[in-house]
Write a structure and sequence with these properties.
Elements: E1 27-45, E2 56-72, E3 75-87, E4 96-108, E5 115-127, E6 131-142, E7 153-162, E8 176-186, E9 190-201, E10 212-227, E11 230-243, E12 257-269, E13 274-283, E14 298-308, E15 314-324, E16 332-344, E17 354-366, E18 372-385, E19 390-403, E20 411-426, E21 429-444, E22 448-462, E23 465-478, E24 485-499, E25 502-516, E26 521-538, H1 577-586, E27 593-595, E28 598-602, E29 613-620, E30 623-632, H2 639-657, E31 662-666, H3 673-678, E32 683-690, E33 693-698, E34 708-714
Antiparallel strand pairs: 1-2, 1-26, 2-3, 3-4, 4-5, 5-6, 6-7, 7-8, 8-9, 9-10, 10-11, 11-12, 12-13, 13-14, 14-15, 15-16, 16-17, 17-18, 18-19, 19-20, 20-21, 21-22, 22-23, 23-24, 24-25, 25-26, 27-28, 28-29, 29-30, 30-34, 31-32, 32-33, 33-34
């Protein structure tokens, strides 16, 4: 829970040349965008192998409208509406006018009982184990000013809403939640959070589902202690579930059940560059609240420790034990021991070498020994400037699966990806080119496979024109004569022209699949679009003695007096890139690989997230344009792991920045998530509007089709419900 009732400013009020807003009186801002998009899909040959389910023309007009009204520094009203006029099978299952998102928020903090009232779409977050998802309904948050002079804070939240994709044919009874959350924060006793949620779902006879009602009651607490030179944070949560769920083996097995969840984590750091974390989770078999992403019937124990050297190199070790099916007759144990090394590597031996090495051993065994295997995995990524403006990249993957119960399933995978990139500049055009090739060898007792995967990426820009091209040609040779060899060529092209408030764009995607033996399959998508955006400010004022941001160095960076973690809000757009680099050195973040208008660091900005993280700084003429934290998924094929990782990162961001200002969700995590993202059928975007800029988190679409999470800070993005092609393409 988070409610901030503070004066709003466009930028920090420190430093010369900072633009600020004076809200004496009424300020009103109106903004919006409209995107008209026409697409055409074509498939020939083996239609079953096509990337596209529907053929022919697909058209939609997508719109969004926002307004902000500020009566005084503590009182504001904000509204949002977005929807689509749809004639596309990919954009929405409904045709015609589809209202997707409506939100009206009133926040008032200049009274004894400050409140925030939201109606329409809002993101409801009590905890990761009670409810964490978007709802359509109402939410009221109260913050009585009791004990504030002693540093105490109280917040009461009341919510009621249904989980629905759109407002068209809205049925509140299908998935309705109501609940309350009480938050108490005290400088001595820490923060305590009491949550209660009741969820009801109407049964659907055609789906074979029953009417379900469930209640979840939870108590969470966290406290940070200073013990000597140690700063230790403790977080705990206990939740109790009673009611109905979808069943374990049969539908009826989910009726009238009760179970519990227990979570505890302790983490710390000291004057030494040492960090550590212990985590414990225990979820009962019947602990299945609707609206959370957890693994029922699982016991988890984790231990993590990290050390950061003065050179910027980080070493992190981990031990994890997961027991699944705890309450079954055949539980499954997974033990993982691993180490990760990231940042500058081989300092003093190899100059300017940066990378990430992740090595681990995983043992999996169930009680009956029918599942019993040991997997050794090494993933390594290296980057280094070469010569004459060329940068080299090497990605290595090695995995040895030793199946003790079925020796025939033993598999060894060796993979290396070699790539280079170079800046381009001619006739006023600037950009970069990135050729590469991936070689993969898979060995198995019964079969094997050899893959060659050449790639090429080009990004160019001149004035208002931008161009992107990505090609991948996968040559897959299977050693068994009875198996099928496949050659697949993917090409993706985008062009856009931006002029004032208008953007015109063209996209073209093709896939040619040639199996031997088998039928050739060709699929293509062509799209053209026009986006018009606008923003109007009324009664806009600037404080006397201040001026708008102009040129390099206009933004004063909020350098803290510490050498620890850097927050994205410190990487303010329009800052001098050299000042940003100085701040990173203070935080022992070194070894950035500089490319055309881009600097990339192997570093972790979000603690408690084990996945690979990279910081990318996009600049122009020495001025920062945007900063991006890129977070990789461990395994795109593991949907549970993907969902939990995505929600864990979002929770970390909400702990830092509070409730999102806006969000947009389309589609569900499914086995076709890669295709859905690239077809625009799956979108996840969350935004926080802050004085430093706009922070956006989500899973953007990319030209190369890869899936990853990105957290970016910039002064502006395309509309959150619009084009999902907002990834930093220069970082592979």
């Amino acid at each position: 829970m988070s409610l901030t009732l503070n004066p709003s400013t466009a930028w920090s009020d420190e430093g010369e040349g900072i633009q600020t807003l004076d809200y004496n009186g009424l300020d009103f801002a109106l903004s919006g965008s409209n995107t008209l998009r026409f697409e055409h899909y074509n498939t020939s040959g083996d239609e079953a192998s096509s990337n596209y389910q529907f053929e022919g023309p697909q058209t939609y007009d997508q719109f969004g409208l926002n307004f902000d009204t500020l009566m005084n520094p503590y009182s504001k009203v904000r509204g949002q509406i977005s929807g689509v006029i749809n004639e596309s099978d990919y954009r929405n299952r409904d045709r015609g006018f589809v209202p997707e998102r409506l939100n009206l928020m009133h926040e008032k903090g200049d009274i004894f009982l400050p409140y925030r009232l939201e109606a329409g779409d809002y993101y409801n977050f009590f905890s990761q184990r009670t409810e964490q998802r978007s709802l359509k309904g109402m939410r009221l948050e109260l913050q009585p000013k009791l004990g504030m002079e002693k540093g105490r804070h109280i917040s009461l939240q009341l919510t009621a809403g249904a989980n629905q994709d759109t407002w068209k044919d809205f049925r509140i009874s299908e998935d309705f939640s109501k609940g309350t959350s009480l938050l108490f924060a005290d400088p001595i006793f820490g923060q305590w959070n009491l949550n209660y949620i009741r969820n009801t779902r109407k049964g659907v006879r055609s789906d074979g589902t029953l009417h379900r009602t469930q209640d979840v009651l939870g108590l969470a607490a966290n406290k940070t202690l200073s013990i000597g030179n140690q700063k230790v944070s403790m977080e705990a949560e206990f939740d109790y579930f009673r009611g109905d769920h979808d069943g374990v083996e049969t539908i009826s097995s989910g009726k009238d059940r009760d179970d519990s969840a227990l979570f505890f984590e302790i983490s710390g750091k000291s004057d030494l560059p040492l960090t550590y974390r212990l985590r414990f989770e225990d979820y009962g078999q019947d602990y299945r609240p609707n609206g959370v992403v957890i693994s029922p019937d699982r016991l988890s124990r984790e231990a993590h420790a990290g050390w950061q050297f003065a050179s910027g190199t980080r070493v992190q070790g981990r031990f994890q034990h997961f027991k699944d099916g705890v309450e079954t007759s055949n539980p499954n144990d997974t033990y993982t021991t691993g180490v990760t090394i990231s940042g500058p590597l081989l300092k003093g031996i190899v100059n300017d070498l940066s990378g990430n090495i992740n090595a681990y051993v995983q043992d999996v065994e169930n009680r009956s020994k029918t599942s019993n295997s040991t997997t050794q995995t090494v993933t390594a990524n290296f980057s280094k400037p070469l010569f004459a403006g060329w940068n080299g990249n090497v990605d290595i993957f090695y995995q040895d699966v030793d199946n003790h119960s079925q020796e025939a399933n033993d598999t060894v995978t060796r993979q290396v990806r070699l790539g280079v990139d170079h800046a381009l500049g001619f006739y006023g055009i600037q950009g970069s080119v990135r050729p590469g090739v991936m070689l993969r060898q898979v060995d198995n007792i019964n079969s094997g496979r050899d893959d060659i995967f050449p790639t090429l990426a080009v990004n160019l820009q001149k004035g208002n024109h931008s161009f992107g091209y990505d090609m991948g040609y996968n040559i897959q040779n299977v050693r068994l004569v009875t198996s099928t060899d496949v050659k697949t060529l993917n090409q993706n092209f985008v062009y856009s022209y931006a002029k004032e408030n208008n953007t015109f764009g063209v996209e073209f995607n093709t896939t040619d699949r040639n199996p031997d033996p088998g039928r050739v399959s060709k699929s293509a998508r062509a799209a053209v679009y026009w986006t018009h955006s606008f923003r109007k400010n009324f009664n806009f004022k600037r404080r006397a003695g201040r001026r708008a941001i102009q040129g390099a160095g206009a933004v004063a960076l909020p350098y803290p007096s510490r050498s620890g973690m850097v927050d994205l809000t410190e990487l303010i757009p329009y800052a001098d890139i050299n000042k940003i680099k100085e701040r990173l050195v203070i935080a022992k973040i070194r070894g950035g690989i500089e490319r055309y208008n881009l600097i990339v660091y192997e570093t972790s900005l979000l603690s408690g997230i084990d996945q690979r993280q990279r910081l990318a700084l996009v600049h122009e003429d020495g001025i920062l344009q945007k900063a991006a934290l890129i977070i990789e998924f461990d395994n795109v094929g593991n949907l549970d792991n993907m969902m939990q990782t995505y929600e864990r990162v979002r929770k970390k961001l909400m702990d830092r920045y509070g409730s999102p200002s806006s969000f947009y969700e389309r589609g569900d995590f499914s086995e076709n998530i890669v295709t859905d993202v690239n077809n625009g059928q799956f979108i996840r975007s969350v935004e926080w509007r802050r004085p430093e800029g706009i922070i956006r988190y989500g899973i953007p679409r990319r030209l190369d089709g890869r899936l990853r999470m990105e957290v970016q800070i910039s002064t502006g993005f395309t509309a959150i419900e619009g084009n999902s092609l907002w990834s930093v393409e220069g970082v592979k």
